[in-house]
Design a protein that fits this description.
Number of helices: 9
CATH topology of one domain: Aminopeptidase
Strand content: 15-25%
Largest sheet: 12 strands, mixed
Strand order of the largest sheet: 1-6-7-8-9-16-10-15-14-13-12-11
Distance between the termini: 28 Å
Structural class: alpha+beta
Oligomer: single chain
Radius of gyration: 19 Å
Order of helices and strands: EHHEEEEHEEEHEHEEHHEEEHEHE
């Protein structure tokens, strides 16, 4: 089991291959494969930006944080969020997959915008895992721990969304992997989610269900490629990057109001340590000098990950969220990103699709019954 610290995260970003060894120079059993290889970092510039979503005339119920919709008040426990049709020849209807027109193994099919589906899914996973690991390693009460094929992360908040297990590689012993996950979070008294890319490890999905975990919600992972240039931002919107504790306070306040979460949770999720993470940028949008919307960018050398999208209620349906999204995407592109990724709820899908995003990496979310 390997603890991931802020300093180690920085080393992994700068020297990905060196990160595969422990301090005593032993090869790690589960090397950090969600980090970008040096060959893909060559020639890329550092980035300076963030990301968000939600367009004018659309509901902001799809607010996104760390790539996931925070379903505190959006009825996530009432019914599964249906997954849309996805690439790779497998179509999804709710939680039940069915064979698509190309069968269940056509994972080399090209997307409408020209890239191979599995390539984009892998890129989306890499950014997704890296963003959570970086965040949780930076939070004083949080942690990110690699345990073989599993990545355990926690923000130290007693709510399932903020404590997760990811399968970063296929499990050779799926039942044992699920047992380790239950034991890890059970020993710490933390409710958690097991998040699995649908179809990437079917035996692990089966093992999770057999262990009593329920798949009551899904998150479509989406990608945009190539990255277009956005239209002008709404009149009066000023977007600033967060550089100090005061800026982070504004970011936390918008997240709390936009997501409907307690302010102390939002403050815990935005510690000053975030500003030292390579590739991490936080943004706040101001109208008349007041913070009203937010976004975050996690750039891993290849993809611009879009996170922390929030808009305060009185300012919704004005295109602010979508403007923040394009701001982040543009900054990522200027830094060398060729792909933007995010995760959305069912409500947000039409907005993202209008922007050009397509589903490439649908995630199934498993939890213990409440």
């Amino acid at each position: 089991m390997q603890l991931i610290t802020v300093e180690r995260r920085r080393q992994m970003h700068e020297h990905p291959h060196a990160s595969r060894r422990s301090p005593d120079d032993r090869e790690l059993a589960g090397a950090e494969q969600w980090h970008v290889p040096e060959s893909q970092l060559a020639g890329r510039r550092r980035w300076e930006c963030g990301h968000d979503v939600l367009g004018s005339g659309e509901d902001d119920a799809d607010e996104v944080i760390l790539g996931h919709a925070v379903a505190l008040e959006h009825g996530a426990h009432e019914r599964p969020d249906p997954l849309p049709d996805v690439v790779g020849g497998v179509l999804f209807d709710g939680c039940r997959p069915a064979k698509g027109p190309n069968g269940g193994s056509d994972h080399g099919r090209r997307l409408p915008f020209g890239m191979i589906a599995d390539d984009l899914a892998s890129v989306a996973d890499t950014n997704f895992f890296g963003a959570w690991a970086a965040l949780c390693a930076a939070i004083p009460r949080g942690f990110a721990v690699e345990d073989g094929e599993l990545l355990f992360v926690s923000c130290g908040i007693p709510y399932p969304f903020f404590n997760s297990a990811f399968a970063v590689r296929t499990s050779s012993e799926p039942a044992e992997a699920v047992a380790r996950t239950l034991a890890f979070f059970g020993e710490r008294g933390l409710p958690f989610q097991l998040r699995l890319r649908s179809g990437a490890d079917r035996p692990l999905e089966v093992a999770a269900t057999a262990a009593g975990l329920r798949n009551d919600r899904n998150l479509p992972g989406m990608a945009l490629h190539p990255l277009p240039r956005p239209a002008s931002i709404p009149s009066g919107l000023e977007i600033r990057e967060s550089h100090d504790a005061g800026d982070l306070g504004d970011h936390a306040a918008v997240c709390a109001g936009g997501f409907g979460m307690p302010l102390d949770w939002a403050q815990q999720l935005t510690p000053i340590e975030l500003l030292a993470i390579p590739g991490q940028h936080l943004y706040v949008g101001y109208m008349d000098g007041r913070p009203v919307c937010s976004s975050a960018l996690f750039f891993d050398g290849v993809a611009a990950g879009v996170y922390n999208v929030a808009t305060l209620g009185p300012w919704r349906r004005r295109g602010l969220g979508e403007a923040m999204t394009w701001h982040a995407i543009t900054a990522g592109a200027d830094a060398g990103a060729e792909i933007a990724i995010l995760q959305a709820t069912d409500m947000g899908l039409p907005v993202y699709e209008r922007m050009g995003f397509r589903v490439v990496s649908p995630y199934r979310v498993f939890e213990l019954p409440s």
